Amino acid sequence: MDIGCVPLSDPKTNAAAAVTEANNLLVHMDGISKQCGGLQTLTDVNFEVRHGEVLGLVGDNGAGKTTLMKFLTGAYHLEKGSIRFDGMPVQRPQDSRNLGVEMIYQNLALCPNRNVTSNIFLGRERARISLLGSLKVLDWPKMRKQAM
């Protein structure tokens, strides 16, 4: 099975364009591979997204879309290959979080009794100092703004 994305222009047609393209990369995943038991789920996958680009990652069920994104978010440990986000290496889950990389999984019932914002910030809620000075309270306006 294959995963695919919107075709990108070929930067190799012009050396100056190649330098511009390389400097414009937001996400660069190179040679990503994953094996689960005896099943090879990803084999040397390369994936790039440029600043300002909107890209759809599509493929059949079981093609590896979610697996690839779990590497980007740090949910899976990198076995082979490299990941850079805005030029910074991504090697641990905290690297992804520090760079603002998050993933909303397709499981719609993560916490069905909570709203969308609560589910997005589950376990990493934003807080602010209350008017009382020493008490922290949830910063709902900030979380709602970031969730949009």
Q: What is this structure, in a nutshell?
A:
By secondary structure, the chain is α+β, with helices and mostly antiparallel strands. Helix content is 25%, strand content 28%. It has 2 domains: 1-102, Rossmann fold; 104-148, no CATH class.
**CATH homologous superfamily assignment of the largest domain:** P-loop containing nucleotide triphosphate hydrolases
Strand order of the largest sheet: 3-2-5-6
**Model regions low in confidence, pLDDT < 50 over at least 5 residues:** 6-20
Number of strands: 8
What fraction strand? 25-35%
Average pLDDT, to the nearest integer? 81
- Say what the CATH topology of the largest domain is: Rossmann fold
Structure commentary:
A hairpin with a 6-residue loop joins strand 7 (127-129) and strand 8 (136-138). A 4-stranded antiparallel β-sheet has the order 3-2-5-6. The chain has a two-stranded antiparallel sheet with strand order 1-4. It has 2 domains: 1-102, 3-Layer(aba) Sandwich (Rossmann fold), CATH 3.40.50; 104-148, no CATH class. It contains 5 helices and 8 strands. The model is unreliable at 6-20 (pLDDT under 50). The chain is α+β, with helices and mostly antiparallel strands and 148 residues long. The chain has helices at 15-23, 65-73, 93-98, 116-120, 140-147, and strands spanning 3-4, 25-36, 39-50, 58-59, 80-85, 88-89, 127-129, 136-138.
Structure keywords:
alpha+beta; 4-stranded antiparallel beta sheet; two-stranded antiparallel ribbon
Give the topology, please.
Layout: E1 3-4, H1 15-23, E2 25-36, E3 39-50, E4 58-59, H2 65-73, E5 80-85, E6 88-89, H3 93-98, H4 116-120, E7 127-129, E8 136-138, H5 140-147
